[in-house]
């Protein structure tokens, strides 16, 4: 009693659902809606050399990093707000609007007549993605029923699959079409989006709108502006010179306004963008510090790698994509082994993953120096395997430290921190990479990025071992 019973009459699978449970085809549909924004992070990296040539951007210019930084900043800064909007207006409804926005902004990117329009389109595309992801997870949680665990497992594996398809599929498309093929890497999102817009109302049940849900629009806007201005300050520091101080001042002013607004919210019944007490646990704060270097290093790596393979080593886009495939494959396979590894090692699993990744990064530095493709494949496999273990163990550790009453919001906050960390790494290491490219070439620049990432991996190893030792002492 009390459960909504499905109708016994026969109905077409594409007709509006007459029950409130998300079935397997509907799960695949909403996962596809999440898959495309994930893939766009990797596929845009493959497009960077073509974008640079088409818009006449100098090799090593930090301007190019804005293609990735803008997307990640828009994506990360709106994830929390996107979750609240979905709660208030219904998750399927918000997902439909967000997918439509992603479709339109993909068209803007694909048709961009200037680099400035492309960067603006990428920021808006990332903002649309920031509203897509919370709705997908919310719909799985609320409507998947007995299929929930399986759906979450499928969702967890999509990072590796999206990287694999984005890197190889995007590279193959560039190789086959040539010329302005990078534009097709964005345009290809359009037919997928149109199909999703048609099927979502027919295959996915909505959640009940909660009009009493308060949305801190001002806080969300100030947070987004703070993130954007900070990342643009870092990305353009080598181009604007002293003029970058104006952006730095803007970052401080907007960031101060956001912090002040959050403090005022703490004294009211209206929830702030980041709930009060989220970071009260010192172990959680330490774990966040542990997370930042890992994701920052990954951002710089993904920015520098496609340019080095295509422009530094002279590989075709297809071969460059094939050389990165072992990384995506290693990530995908190792992510499934995380529960077992973490069960045996606990927090020490993070150190194990970072160690494997560090060995791969060191091997990659040698492979780039001697231009050895076989060694590069082995190194990339180790990097991906280490990243899969580290990321899975780190996410599980962080979420376990979030207060139970804030678990749902905690996931959004942590995902935001991850995306902003990747964007920060792309901006900072992208600037370093560009400076070295202009003075010493792509190979040397890539080796510098890899050495920095090895040092960041060492920080993660040391911090995670200290955390594991502290937990053993505390457990006695």
From TrEMBL:
The keyword Cell inner membrane does not apply. Residues 26-469 form the Major facilitator superfamily (MFS) profile domain. Its main location: membrane. It comes from the Bacteria. Keywords: Membrane, Transmembrane, Transmembrane helix. It is found in: Membrane. The chain crosses the membrane at residues 27-51, 57-82, 94-113, 119-140, 152-169, 181-200, 220-237, 243-260, 286-306, 318-338, 420-439, 445-465. It is a multi-pass membrane protein. This is MFS transporter.
